[in-house]
Amino acid sequence: MNNWHYNRVKAQVFISIFVIAFAYFFFFDNEYNYNQESIIYNVKRKQTINLEKFPSSTNNVVSLKINISGNIKGIAKISLLENNQTFKSKIIKDNFSININSEWYSNNATLLYKPINVKYGEIKIKYSFEEI
Fold first, then answer.
1. Number of structural domains, the chain?
2. Domain coverage including residue 101
3. How far is CA 64 from each of CA 9, 104, 106, rounded to the nearest angstrom?
4. pTM of the model
5. Which residues, including other chains, have CB under 8 Å from residue 29's CB and lie 6 or more apart?
6. Among 48, 71, 80, 112, which is least packed by CB within 10 angstroms?
7. What is the mean pLDDT of residues 22-37?
């Protein structure tokens, strides 16, 4: 194989790796896709967490992406509510990272956190209202 061909193949491999890395960081569910954050500090207490899109945005909401991660000693349930009814819920315990992604057409959302024998821990909620 001549030197010119070898350098061309190296460049194509480099470009392919760059495109894959770019797609991973900007299109998949990871920390770069969430533009707002909330923290549950007192994990022993039942809490309602209100999520709202940025007030300065005038676009229509079409979906909601939520990542809930943390570490708790015990078990808890976290639910996304729609019209005060459970829309989706997850059980969390130990070290966890869960995603809740859904079509959503409201400018706000409500999460309900219910601890079940939780002794201590920390929970971070990252979320983004996707708009058109």
1. 2
2. 35-131
3. 41, 6, 9
4. 0.73
5. 65, 67, 99, 101
6. 48
7. 62
